[in-house]
Every structure is written in structure tokens, then in C-alpha cells.
Amino acid sequence: MTRPKGPVLFDLDDSAPRATPSEAPPVPEPDMPDAPRGAAMQTAAALAARRPSRLARVFWGLVGTLLGVAISLAAWDFATGLVARVPMLGYAVTALIAALLLVLIVIAIREMAAFARLGRIDALHRRADAALAGDDLPAARALTDDLVALYKGREDTRWGRTRLAEQRGDQFDASTLLALTEAELLTPLDAAALRQVEGAARQVAAVTALVPLALADVIVALSANIRMIRRIAEIYGGRSGTLGSLRLTRAVMTHLVATGAVAVGDDVISSVAGGSLLSKVSRRFGEGVVNGALTARVGVAAMEVCRPLPFSAGKRPKVRRIITTALSGLFPS
Predict the structure, then answer these.
(1) How much of the chain exceeds pLDDT 70, in percent?
(2) Which terminus of the chain has a smaller tally of CB atoms within 10 A, N or C?
(3) DSSP secondary structure code for residue 37 in this structure
(4) By C-alpha distance, which of 254, 242, 221, 300 is closest to 49?
């Protein structure tokens, strides 16, 4: 076979369609094991929603009681022995122990008050459901009075309370009165809660996409969601302590796991990231979008749990819109 002499001309067909970078398939990542979409948030939700067994609760209760008794006896023996050896120093240590007990009592009272506040918000929510179901105008008016008293003294609701006082006399059924109360009192609170949800979704998405450390995304997702739920409760007037926050977080996560809300598909990525090359080239960025979306769902569920009134028709925040607002700058198209 003889080689041709001179240049060789190849005829390229320019009319053939060419793939764009946004249509390129994802780059394989063979060094990383495959994981389901939103694995970090699903793991965090499962950990937060899981209740310990009754046997485990009894075990830890007995362990805590025994440790408390042992520590108390050791502290008492230490203080009395020190008083016998060095009276002035012993009395000083005794005073410190008494101060510690006083602080523990104050913490316990604050935790009980936090549970009472959360219970008050939950009771208002149940009363609203009952008033709407029975179209009970007197019950709706009494509920409105309680809501005004709940937010009395808060500057962010002052203008809404004034408008509500001017217009509530013109409402003659429970649904319109509660809709007016929702629009005037809860609109600024909803806006503040949405900002917390967007911030948490952005944080979780960024850490998932940029930090490759194992379990880092799970830890950040769990801590960010607990902090977000606590702040949402504070916005709506249900300030919770440490135990109250954990209980509230478990209630929200249990609801999400039970309803199957901690699962999203690739349509979430396409709706948020659009043609973003980053989300298509790197699986970590796609995972970040999904975890941010799941955080937004947790935030909306927390708003529903912590809100003293249920969302009226068309007022419930759209998760897709929250994700788009929170992540539009993080994942540019």
C-alpha cells in the first residue's frame, strides 16, 4: 500500500449538531463510592427522628441517676472534709456548690418555661384548626385576641397590630378574620423565618459541595437544621431551650421521614441549577443542591410546626422558590 503524496483534505460536515458544555455528561468519579442523592440530609433526618427504645431510656435514666447520686455524695464528702481541715476554704467551696445548684435550678426552670411556650403555640394552632373547621367566629375572635397578646411589645408586629385593630370589626366569619390576622401579624414573621431557611439551605449546600471530608456534610446538615428550627421557633414566639429544641427538631424530622419528604429527584437540580456546568461536571455540587433543597423542606415543615396559625391557601412557601433564591448565587448558570 503506497502512501499518498501531498496534503490530504478531509471534508467535515458543519451541519452536524454539536454538543454544548451544558449538555455534556457528568464526569465519572471512580474514587468515590456511589451514594444516593441527598444522603447527608437523609442521614441527618433519620438520626434526628429516631427515638431511643424504652429499654435504652430506662438504661440511661438509671445511669444518670447513679452518676448524679455519686457526684452529689462525692461533692458533699469533699466539702465537709475540707471544712474540717481548712474551715474558710471549705465554706468557700460549699458556697460554690450552692451557687452551682442554684444555676442548675434556674436552667431547669427556663427549660420548663420553654416547653410551656412551645405548648402555647401548639394550643393556638389547634384552636385555629377547630375554629376554621366549625366556622366559629367567637372562637376566632378569642384566638385573635390571644395572638395580639402574644406579640404585644414586639416592634416588628406593631404596625400589623394597629391595622388588625382597625379592620377586625368588619370581618363576619372565622376564615376571613383569621386570614386577616395571618396577613397583618404573621407576614413579617414569615419573611424573617424564610430568611433563616434560605441561609441554612445555602450553608448546607456550600459545605456539601466544597468540603470533601467524610461525615462533614452530615454534621453540618444536622447542626444547621437544629439551629434553623430553634431560630424559627424564636421568631414565632416559641423560644425553646436546649431540650425543647431537640424535641422540636425530632418532631419536625419525624414528620418529614413519615411523609417521605426527605427524597428529591434530579428535577430539583435542573430547576435550581438550570444549565449550571458545575452541577453537571461535579457530583459534589449536585449533591449540594439536593441537600440544600432538603434543608429548605425541613425549614418549611418547621414553619408549619412553629407557626401559631396554619398556612391559608396559597400562603405556604414554595420549596422550589426558596431553593432558587438561596442557591442562585451559589450555583451560577
Answers:
(1) 70
(2) N
(3) T
(4) 254
Phi-psi region for residue 314, left (φ > 0), alpha (ψ -120 to 50) or beta?
left
Q: Is 140 exposed, middle or buried (0-12, 13-18, 19+ CB in 10 A)?
A: buried
* Neighbour-count burial for 268-301, b at 16+ CB within 10 Å, e otherwise: bbeebbeebbbbbeebbbbbbbbbbbbbbbbbbb
From its phi and psi, is residue 204 left (phi > 0), alpha (psi between -120 and 50) or beta? alpha
> What span, in angstroms and rounded, lies between the C-alpha atoms of 311 and 65?
43
How far, in Å, CA of 257 to CA of 206, rounded?
A: 24
**Could you tell me which residues come within 8 angstroms of residue 131 by beta carbon, excluding any fewer than 6 positions away?**
139, 140, 143, 174, 178
Give Cα 284 distance to the centre of its chain: 22
CA atoms within 13 A on the CB side of 316: 14
pLDDT in tens, 133-153: 888 888 889 999 988 888 888
Q: What does each C-alpha distance from 158 to 186, 187, 323 come to in angstroms?
A: 11, 12, 30
Closest CA to 296 of 324, 270, 331, 269: 324
Q: How confident is the model at residue 267 (pLDDT cuts 50, 70, 90)?
A: very low
Q: Cα-atom radius of gyration of the chain, to the nearest Å? A: 28
**Running DSSP on this structure, what letter comes out for residue 15?**
T
CB atoms within 10 A of CB 118: 23
Per-residue cell: 74: 462525692
* Side chain identity, residue 223: S
Residue 246 and residue 114 in contact, taking contact as beta carbons nearer than 8 Å? no
Nearest alpha-carbon partner for 136 in 177, 165, 173, 178: 173
